[in-house]
Design a protein that fits this description.
The protein is mainly α. About 65% of the residues lie in helices and about 10% in strands. It has six helices and three strands. The longest helix has 30 residues, at about 90-119.
Amino acid sequence: MQKNPAQCQFVVALDSIVGKWKPIILYHLLQGKPLRFNELRRLLPDITQRMLTLHLRELEEEEIVKRVVYPQVPPKVEYSITEYGKSLSPILESLHQWGVAHVKRKQLKMTNHEQTETD
């Protein structure tokens, strides 16, 4: 069976950034300033510590996020977006804009459906 090269490229790209939390983590890191683990936890109150750790490691492996450990007691660790990771900014912005439009469309559809039922 022959593989579809275009499909493979989509899968590779999506594997790197898709998940419930990865785009939101990237959004916060794209704001510019490095964030400590607990700062990210506060920004994402519904994420578990395990899930945040897992996603940060995956993003670090992909060289999208940089992890810096400062040699001090207690240890200080900061996460920031890499130059390579910054290339995701226009993609994530487009995805966000599409999401906003999609939510509005669904709300309009729901409103129209409710009006039809009451008529």
